[in-house]
Design goal:
single chain; 20 helices; two-stranded antiparallel sheet; mainly alpha; binds zinc ion; 458 residues; two-stranded antiparallel ribbon
Length: 458
């Protein structure tokens, strides 16, 4: 909803640190992660996929060798594009993967199928009569996977499943074969080792360098969020993100560590796109509610929303007060429920008979994304909780008319206020400056409602 304002200088510095961390992670004391993973992969297609993620080139499958030496391959694509490239670059990577590596498009499917079959096996155990119906369900799931899995081993497994089904060998015999799903695909596990978000998010961050005073600089989730300096959740503009420092002792030495109260959301979810799990521009510091409660596994490739590093609601979607005599109504169907008889107490800030509504400019550039953001983060619903705040703004709009603001400014110019905007900021206790909207909670609501009520805009 609110754009994250970070200077390009700051972003450059963050990128440098993030890449240092990633290089360090790739080359651990146990060896080079890419060489290691390459060795563990089962087939040429998987190796081809890993080489694409590292180099951006799709090597001819006949040229794939059993061994690689990471020193000989150019990892610029991996670091400059996959790890630190823009969201547009990540989108094009996804496109290439879809076109060339259909079978790896959805990593979870094979594992999902396994869980699914295990769950169904339990159902068959409990309810023998339903066996045929349950087989049908499994068959459908396998059919879904067929379209993007071309592994020889997997195909053999499907054939085996079909034959046993046709021979009516029964649940027990068929379900034995879920073991065969182990090892059908190893790429998932290897990708998770290279793009290891768990390691990045752990409390004990990795030392990446020393500053000019020989103090250790650590990097990881907490330090990244602290360095980004985002103070309010960009998705909802309702929750503060607090960064603080804490003293820690490691090897009897004292360290100052960064801590934060924020979640680090993966804009493109890591369960579907594990190769974007450490991509800098895929990280959105956000509040826990937006990330863990509302967004969950929503796929923003499929369901496009406002991308906070580049986009915002801005003038395309503005908060507005809509009058109604039924404040408990179904706020999602607000248009139908609006009535003609208004409660005049609303105009004095003395009644809850109104709805905090979004006025969206239809067919504007981002209108679809804005609507998706509102639905995903339940913004229309959660904002109704701030009616008391809007009621105060209504009262303020009556008290602080144009001449009152001018009067206050004249009286305190140079002592309390340096500009007329300072007076308005004091009145509404918030920033209404576009540049500062990411500094306080409810700033967007304040700005839009002030505009609607004419506070400072007369
Ligand atoms: Zn939030």
């Amino acid at each position: 909803m609110i754009k994250i304002n970070i200077s390009s200088e700051k972003m450059k510095e963050i990128k440098k640190k993030h890449l240092k961390w990633f290089q360090k992670h790739l080359n651990s004391s146990k060896g080079n992660k890419i060489e290691e993973s390459y060795k563990n992969l089962k087939n040429e297609k998987e190796k081809q996929f890993l080489l694409y993620l590292c180099t951006g080139n799709i090597k001819n499958i006949n040229e794939i060798t059993d061994e690689i030496n990471s020193k000989d391959i150019d990892l610029d694509f991996l670091t400059e594009t996959l790890i630190s490239g823009t969201i547009l670059e990540l989108k094009s990577i996804k496109k290439v993967i879809e076109e060339n590596f259909k079978s790896f498009k959805n990593f979870n499917k094979v594992f999902y199928l396994k869980d699914f079959i295990i769950q169904k096996r339990e159902e068959v155990k409990k309810d023998k009569d339903n066996e045929a119906k349950i087989f049908k369900e499994i068959e459908k799931e396998i059919d879904d996977i067929k379209s993007f899995c071309d592994e020889t081993k997997f195909k053999a497994l499907l054939k085996d499943f079909d034959e046993k089904r046709n021979k009516n060998l029964g649940a027990k015999q068929i379900f034995l074969d879920i073991r065969k799903l182990n090892g059908v695909s190893t790429i998932d596990a290897e990708i998770k080792k290279i793009f290891d978000y768990k390691k990045f998010s752990q409390t004990n961050e990795t030392e990446i360098e020393k500053d000019e005073n020989k103090n250790s600089i650590f990097w990881g989730r907490h330090s990244l969020i602290t360095n980004l300096g985002v103070q309010v959740c960009p998705y909802c503009n309702r929750q503060y993100i607090t960064n603080y420092k804490e003293e820690d002792i490691k090897n009897k030495e004292k360290y100052i560590k960064n801590k934060t109260t924020a979640d680090l959301d993966h804009f493109y979810i890591k369960s579907e796109y594990p190769y974007f799990a450490l991509s800098l521009y895929n990280f959105i510091p956000s509040c826990q509610i937006c990330n863990s409660r509302f967004k969950l596994d929503c796929d923003f490739f499929e369901n496009e929303v406002i991308y906070p590093y580049e986009e915002e609601f801005g003038d395309e979607a503005k908060f507005s007060i809509k009058l109604t005599n039924d404040s408990e109504n179904e706020i999602d169907q607000i248009k139908e429920k609006l009535i003609k008889e208004y409660d005049s107490d609303v105009f004095y800030g003395n009644s809850d008979n109104f709805i905090i509504h979004f006025n969206i400019q239809e067919h504007s550039k981002n209108s679809e994304k804005i609507k998706n953001s509102i639905t995903t983060f339940k913004l229309r619903k959660v904002y109704q909780y701030h009616k008391d705040y809007v009621r105060e703004l209504i009262k303020k709009s009556i008290i602080y008319n144009e001449s009152r603001i001018d009067e206050l400014y004249r009286e305190y110019e140079g002592t309390l206020f340096n500009s007329r905007e300072d007076v308005i900021q004091m009145i509404v206790s918030n920033y209404i400056d576009d540049e500062k909207l990411d500094k306080r909670v409810l700033s967007k609501l304040t700005k839009d409602i002030c505009e609607e009520l004419g506070i400072g805009y007369l």
